[in-house]
Amino acid sequence: MKKLFLLVLLIIGITTVSRAAYMLIPMDEETQKNHLKAYGITYWVLDKGEEAWWLLNYRGGSFAFPHNRLFELECLTRGVSFEIIADAQFNKILEDISNPEVNMDALKLEVPPKIAVYTPTVNQKGEKVQPWDDAVTMVLTYAEIPYETVYDTEVMTDMLPKYDWLHLHHEDFTGQYGRFYRSYHNEPWYRNNQRTMEALAASLGFAKVSQLKLGVVKKIQEYVVGGGFMFAMCSATDTYDIALAADGLDICADMYDGDPADPNAQQKLNFSKTFAFKDFQLRRNPLEYEYSNIDDTQDRNVRPDQDYFTLFDFSAKWDPVPTMLTQNHTRTVKGFMGQTTAFRKSLVKSDVLVLGENKPAQEVRYIHGTMQEGFWTFYGGHDPEDYRHLVHDPETDLNLHPNSPGYRLILNNVLFPAAKKKKRKT
Description:
Elements: H1 2-19, E1 21-25, H2 35-47, E2 52-56, E3 62-66, H3 69-78, E4 83-86, H4 87-97, E5 105-109, E6 115-118, H5 135-143, E7 148-150, H6 152-156, E8 165-168, H7 181-184, H8 188-203, H9 209-225, E9 229-233, H10 235-245, H11 254-257, H12 265-268, E10 308-311, H13 320-325, E11 332-334, E12 343-344, E13 353-358, E14 363-371, E15 374-379, H14 405-415
Parallel strand pairs: 6-7, 6-8, 8-9, 9-15
Antiparallel strand pairs: 1-3, 1-4, 2-3, 2-5, 10-11, 10-13, 12-14, 13-14, 14-15
Helix pairs in contact: 2-3, 2-5, 2-14
Protein name: Asparagine synthetase B
């Protein structure tokens, strides 16, 4: 009986210690072995029904949650660095963070966001439609964050409200098939993609692919206005706004939709409809691998070894949203190219928040904005760890880049919807 009593006391003691402790997931450069999987751990903890804390600007934007043996084992399994700290020590961290003199804040994360990736996964024959990868799907897979895929049918049948966060895969929303005609129109993947998209447009009641894509753009806009979180990279950024500005116009040459483009389309663009960009000029040569002058890929004079952009510092207590989106273990991020690499600063609307820029080149790389109840973020470039990703290039192995600052920015956006909304200070 005495031994049984001691055993019960021991179990109670262990349980008490566990409940009175927190797990800190440090996100500074010196301590964290795998920054990317740390986001996956935090998502997984939320999915298990536990709340977590995002400690903005504290050791690189660390995470914390109540200690649990299962959570500890999962961190060990995924190779994520962690520290076990006493309850009193965690409360002291929160107290220090709350000091109005320090640029830090603690935000509670409550519910894991349900994630959708807008992507054409396969064609009618089950073949991969596009011969390139997507940074977001790669990092979600690597971080072990679950997601579902949607495409035009799901969007047009109003499936988006099921999701909290939507990523737009490398896409051409103008209906010009990525402007790949000159280089790839004789390749099987290009012809298959064109046939598949034309059939899909017809099945959804549209005469042209460009009209279908405009319909998709408007549905996504409704999703954002209603409170959704939309994230886009590479050509899904500028072509989204171009499609909105060109609503009701034909900007596609005959090789894309069977009839000529409106020669006066430029003068008829409506920039009041766009999310981010204004006063841009369409590139009228249909064989040019570019849509407009929003993107400065062809004109930028930046050497690869000097291609960096700088993240802005925001007030964690007054501006928690941009602070969340720029959490990193460095403020200087290596640049990377894409069909849409960077945005000309002069063409960005004044109410758009610039999160990261290459100031000498007068270009912005990472921008954010609101639209009524929702949020959107545009991120220039194709793959943060593949400087000049080309068609048919192999996927990046993220096991070689577990601490990528560029990929961290994507994952900041993924966890952003999980944050408990705080009343803005007045």
